């Protein structure tokens, strides 16, 4: 949506565009885990008979394959959830703000949902919403708050069901990230804050790797030793993410909101000092759609 809005503004088709999303899925109890119900789809014919939890079991298969192929452990993957909780403890708006710290053992010993993912590997179910406003740089510079520039963007749609996926350990984020960085004229080394969709711990792990922040098969070692926690070299999901902050069915717009807050210095206790370049990356469907946006302070 950011790409479409940016293109429309640059083409003179619009001056100001609002992108918004909101959901009351928790209070309405609208979230259900189950199979695909449309009988005519390949998913219903070829996958639902195996009774997967949709979408959890599909992401669990990706986690299982990654750990098997590259020799990692669930304890290493749990660092995604542990770090998210540390960020949430700095965010009074976070759903888990008062929940206390999380350990890798807490994650691995929590209730198994779909092997190897436990309940602590899975995002929250909450109400929530957000919005971002895009306009021309000239107009933005005349507004009350500092302008944040869209430096680059990229996207990929790779699949709908899992049936057609040859390798569950690599995603379309490789292409979307490469395009976004090329348009922005920056590299992962230039990024101060990374906001990626963490519907599950494996979603965030695969995204970090695919976006080029580390090499193939290296992400579990890369995120160790506090790298993605507060004070680490690569601050990740600084609001607490979908794992500990908020997850109203779709989290993408909130990635953008938090990235902008960090670049404006509005993060409060969780503010990353001197943040000038931020990346927001969304994952949709069954690791099906991938959108990367590079944002920067206005210079």
UniProtKB/TrEMBL annotation:
<feature type="domain" description="Thiolase C-terminal">
    <location>
        <begin position="154"/>
        <end position="296"/>
    </location>
</feature>
<dbReference type="InterPro" id="IPR055140">
    <property type="entry name" value="Thiolase_C_2"/>
</dbReference>
<protein>
    <recommendedName>
        <fullName>Thiolase C-terminal domain-containing protein</fullName>
    </recommendedName>
</protein>
<dbReference type="Pfam" id="PF22691">
    <property type="entry name" value="Thiolase_C_1"/>
</dbReference>
<dbReference type="InterPro" id="IPR016039">
    <property type="entry name" value="Thiolase-like"/>
</dbReference>
